[in-house]
Amino acid sequence: MLRVMLDRHSQLAIPDESYFIPQIAARHRGRLDHDAFCDDLARVHTLVDWGVSPSQVRVQLQPGATVGDGIAAVFHAYAAHHGKSTWGDKTPMYMQYLPLIDRLFPDARYVHIVRDGRDAALSFLAMPTGVVTETWAHPRSIGGVACQWRSEVLAAQALGRRVGDERYLELRYEQLVADPPAGLQAVCRLAGLDYEPSMVDYAGNVDLTGKPHLTGLERPPTPGLRDWRSGATTKQVGEFESIAGDVLATCGYPLADPALGSGPNARARLALASYRARASAWRTTAWLLARSPIWRRRHPPIQSNTTGVVRSRNQ
Questions:
Q1: Residue 240 lies in a domain
Q2: Dihedral in degrees, nearest 10, Cα atoms 127, 295, 278, 259
Q3: What is the pLDDT of residues 280-291, one digit of tens each?
């Protein structure tokens, strides 16, 4: 919802999830080899979906460009294609890669939208399995989502403390849907953009082809679309709060069991340790695969990197 509203701004382009940043960043070090970089871009399906060709990116690359500059050029090409001057990204998976994102884009500004984790868990678990592609482990239990929610909220808040208020804004989802103009005005101030009232008027103007899990965007911002008080069992609520109750409380969300606000118990700490170990192993494996020759075999060219002509994915 926030991505759609921001993308309606006349100067700001925010596409669907990109996914490719960690892979491309793993494959390039130091100053870019323009040919190798564009050859890799020709293998990324996201660029095809966005209508961006490697040749459009290549013309923006300057001598001495870094991988961050190269990735930014992809987004600049997308923004230019839509007649806009500023770009953003909304890819939940990158919550696992915040240090990398901040290293690639040292001047980036961050909007961290926080939703009551119990509502977020119900929403996540209701998504069709095939749609949940942006998370590293596809948690399918309330405890698994609690581990991820707690870890990612704390990671984003730690980033906010490092970069300061000039580059970080934390929004509550519940406040945003209750008063969208106020939330969007705060985001626009952070981004150095003028607020445009048309940003709120997205209902009925969003292409939801192939996105059945986003049918909520057919209506304007609506509070209470999902409420853990009526949608979750007592056991589910207790499991979530035993793992993330302290972070819920810190974020201002009342707990069903206030005793769980003092921090994870021994069982919850074990679950969190297991989550962190698996998340680290997944990121390490993904990095090694991106660095290996296997990556190129698994990602054959799907675009021309010189003419910008899109090839069939079956070629």
A1: yes
A2: -40
A3: 999 999 999 999
